[in-house]
Structure formats: C-alpha cells, structure tokens
Design brief:
The chain is of the alpha+beta class. Helices cover 33% and strands 27% of the residues. The protein has helices spanning 11-23, 40-44, 63-73, 89-97, 107-112, 116-125, 141-151, 177-192, 249-265, 302-309, 313-321, 399-412, 422-430, 432-435, and strands at residues 4-7, 27-32, 47-50, 77-79, 101-102, 133-134, 155-159, 168-171, 197-201, 206-215, 221-233, 236-242, 270-279, 289-295, 338-345, 347-348, 354-355, 358-359, 362-364, 370-373, 380-381, 388-396, 414-416. The strands form 6 sheets. The protein has an 8-stranded antiparallel sheet, with helices on both faces. Strands 3-2-1-4-5 form a 5-stranded parallel sheet, sandwiched between helices. Helix 12 runs antiparallel to helix 13. The longest helix is centred in the middle third of the chain and has 17 residues, at 249-265. The radius of gyration is 21 Å and the shape is globular. The N and C termini lie far apart (45 Å). It binds adenosine-5'-diphosphate.
Length: 436
C-alpha cells in the first residue's frame, strides 16, 4: 500500500478520501487555496500546503504547484478527486513522470474517452451499442442539417468536448436547426475551446443509467452494478439511486456486460463510470440502452454504489493504484437494498436556483444517515467553487423506504442565512411520480 497521499482537491471529496486513507494508515496531504485555509479538509489532513489565491485557475488547476507540493512533502501518490484535474491526461502523465503514483485512470484511457465523438466511435468498434446519430468529421452546417433531417426530429446537438450539461441543444423541428446549431457552437467554443458537435437522436422517455466499473493492473475488470441518475435539472443530476428502478435481470446483465466491454476496450484501470441512455417508453429493455460517454474518475454519486455493495470505492482505488488485484471478484459482488443520494446545494429555488453564498451561521445536517460534507457551522460557502454543501445518502431495504428516508433527511436540514434546495429535494423525494 502507498504510504502517503496528496489530495489535489477540496471540500467534501477531499474529506471523503482522507477518511479512507486514515483508516488504511496512509499519511494524507491536503493542498488548499487561500479561501479554503480554514476548511475542515485542511485541518483533517496530516499536512497541508497552501497553493495560491482563491480562483481555481490560480490554485487547484495549477499543475506545477500541486507537483511542487507533492515533492516538498514527500508524497508517494496523488488522488485528483473529481472535477479540477481528475480527467486531465497531461497532468496524469506529469504525475507519473515525476515518479509518483496516479490514483486515477491511465492517461491513454482518459484521452480515448475525452471527446464524445471519438469515444462513441471507439465503443461502436468494440461492439458496444451507442446512441444513434452523426459523429462525423464534416462539420459544415449543410451536412449537419442533412444528418439531423435523416435522423428525424427531435434531435440533440452535443458539443464533442462538452460536459456538465453544457453545450447541448434539443431541436424539435428542421426550421430551428440552424439557430440551435449556432448557439450550441458559440457556447461550446467559449466553454470548451472546441466548437465541434455531434448529433444524436433525442430519446423520448429517457433514463440516465450508468454502471460503475473497476479495473486493475492485472487486466481484470468488474462492474459494481448500475446507478440511476434520471432525476435531473438542466441535464444535471439532482437525486441518484442504486439500483435502477424497473431493472430486470436480463437488462442488468446486458448493460453491465456492455460496461465491462467498454472499459476493457480502453484497457481501463481504477474507478470509472460508463453512462448509458435508455429509452424507457416501454420499460427498460436490453435492446434500448445506448452508450453516452465514460467518466474516467470517481464520481460524485459513488456513495450509493458503496451503500448497496458494502464496499469502499476509495479503498479499491488506493489498492489498485498500489498494484494490488481487485478486492473482490465479480461473483462475490451483490446488491443489498436500495440507496439514494441527494445533492444539497447553496442555491435558492425561489430565484431560479441562483447560487446563495455567504456565512453558514447555522448549519445542522441529519445525523442518522451518511452525510458527506465539506463544510461546518461557522464556515462559509464562497463564490469560487461548486456551491454543494453536502451529499445526503440513505440506504434502506426497499426503494419506497429509501425515498421516505431521503425526504425525511432533507426535511431535517437547517441552514441559515444561506439558502438551500433542501425543501425542493424533500418535495422531490416525496413526489408521487418519483416514488412510483
Ligand atoms: P454531459 O457530459 O454534459 O453531462 P451527457 O452526454 O452525459 O452530457 O448528457 C447529460 C444528460 O442529457 C443525460 O443524462 C440525459 O439526461 C440527457 N441526454 C443526453 N443525451 C440524450 C439523448 N440522446 N436524448 C435525450 N436526452 C439525452
């Protein structure tokens, strides 16, 4: 096992990683911006190194500063968490070149899955079903329109470099296509510096179902079943759960096998997620599930998988990065009960979900369930980073019981004066349509 670990991240995920590292006897090193110097993750790490001003561009995203911190503290490995540098292949390479262990995906896998069009082509070649559509080189507006017409409306225009729900436009009719294309390309150029797009059939009654996969350096890959993240706002996940409602054995076998095949096609090592979209207009069916993209990192919603499998995925990551084989074989993994996670955000639903930053004068989070949080009472939600306050994770014998427990947990949240989406989450978890 690696002896020391620098965490190139902040907030709840930094704390989450520290917790497992400590249990395994791994020395932890936090890096932090000036804005984060009083955050719990800085205090909880064995050591902490300041790496610059509040804006991530000047701190958490500066590769040289993180590598220098690792060198100065004698860190043996770097865990990137999610976001920031976690899917940056050049950084992964720089870490390895510096003689450190990268607790993340192999740089070549990150690159192969980095662009949506290239990833889809690769998956198609590997025999993984992909969402029908156009992912060609010819980016002329005429050609794109012709392809969209041929696919049939509604279609979805997607930036090949997109992420976080950005750079997507649903087009309902041919006359709207050119306007949507222009605005999508504009957003893609400014957000990702790449205005190329692909076109997909817009799936009606869509379900977002993703499969957690894990590979080791011996070439073995297993899956840890699926998560359902269909409950979204603006293409961003709000509530995630595992397993997926309405999943029968045949469909589960098909989707999980496709995920393992996808991971093997890019020689995957470590924690990854294969995202699929399902047409659920007639329930889930094995022939109506298509590959969307792969996330080559640990995901925000990994706790629901941990809950139903009883595994610690950060421990798996550290073991695999240390060269150990996967802790369990496929036949030893089982689903136990139902788990749900809600993302508690410092945002105000009444103002259209505008971020609500400021001091956390009063903060009380549920105590009877798993809560992964990066902040504490007396702290602050700053405008510099993602305004997530906590993830609330429940685990119960049935889906109904999990939804009930999640609604109750959201109802217990007390935060002042920062506004949150807690009441919105509670209503959502209680909503008859969601429960059904
Ligand atoms: P990002 O990388 O920005 O998160 P994704 O490709 O993962 O984008 O898609 C985000 C969400 O958009 C999906 O979870 C789903 O809700 C919706 N979506 C994506 N592709 C389609 C599609 N072809 N049809 C309908 N909805 C889609």
């Amino acid at each position: 096992m690696i002896e020391s670990l620098l965490i190139a991240n902040r907030g709840e995920i930094a704390r989450r990683i520290i917790r497992t590292a400590r249990r395994l006897g791994v020395r932890t090193i936090a890096v932090h911006s000036d804005a984060d110097k009083d955050m719990p993750f800085v205090r909880e790490a064995d050591e902490a190194v300041a790496i610059g001003p509040a804006p991530a561009r000047e701190s958490y995203l500066v590769q040289e500063k993180i590598l220098a911190a690792a060198k100065a503290t004698g860190a043996a490995a770097i865990h990137p968490g999610y976001g920031f540098l976690s899917e940056n292949a050049a950084f992964a390479e720089a870490v390895q070149t510096a003689g450190l262990v990268w607790v993340g995906a192999p740089p070549a896998s990150i690159r192969a899955m980095g662009l949506k069009d290239a990833a889809k082509k690769l998956m198609q070649a590997a025999g993984v079903p992909v969402t029908p559509g156009y992912m060609g080189e010819d980016q002329s507006p005429e050609r794109l329109q012709k392809e969209a017409d041929a696919i049939g409306y509604p279609v979805l225009i997607k930036a090949v470099a997109g992420g976080g729900g950005k750079g997507m436009r649903k087009v309902d009719a041919a006359q709207q296509f050119q306007d949507s294309l222009e605005s999508c390309k504009r957003e893609a150029a400014s957000s990702f510096g790449d205005d190329r797009v692909l076109i997909e059939k817009y799936i009606l009654s869509p379900r977002h179902i993703e499969v957690q996969v894990f590979g080791d350096t011996q070439g073995d890959v297993v899956h840890l079943f699926e998560r359902d993240c269909s409950l979204q706002r603006r293409h961003q996940k709000v509530i995630e759960e595992a397993p997926a409602p309405g999943m029968d054995a045949a469909t589960r076998e098909a989707i999980c096998a496709a995920a393992v095949k996808a991971a093997k096609a890019v020689d995957y090592v470590g924690a990854g997620t294969i995202e699929f979209i399902a047409d659920a207009s007639e329930g889930l069916r094995p022939d109506r599930i298509w590959f969307m993209e792969m996330n080559t990192r640990l995901q925000v919603e990994h706790p629901v998988t941990e809950a139903i499998t009883g595994q610690d995925l950060v421990e798996w990551q550290l073991r695999v990065a240390s060269g150990e084989p996967l802790p369990l074989r496929q036949q030893d993994l089982r689903i136990d009960g139902w788990a749900m996670e809600a993302r508690l955000y410092a945002e105000n639903p009444v103002t259209g979900f505008l971020p609500s930053t400021g001091p956390l004068t009063h903060l009380r989070l549920p105590s009877a369930i798993r809560v992964d949080s990066g902040v504490e009472q007396g702290g602050e939600v700053t405008p510099f980073y993602d305004p997530m306050i906590a993830k609330l994770i429940v685990h119960a014998p049935t889906r109904q019981a999990a939804a009930k427990s999640l609604a109750a947990a959201c109802g217990e949240v007390q935060v002042w004066p920062v506004r949150t989406n807690a009441a919105f989450l509670a209503r959502t978890a209680n909503d008859p349509a969601f429960v059904a």
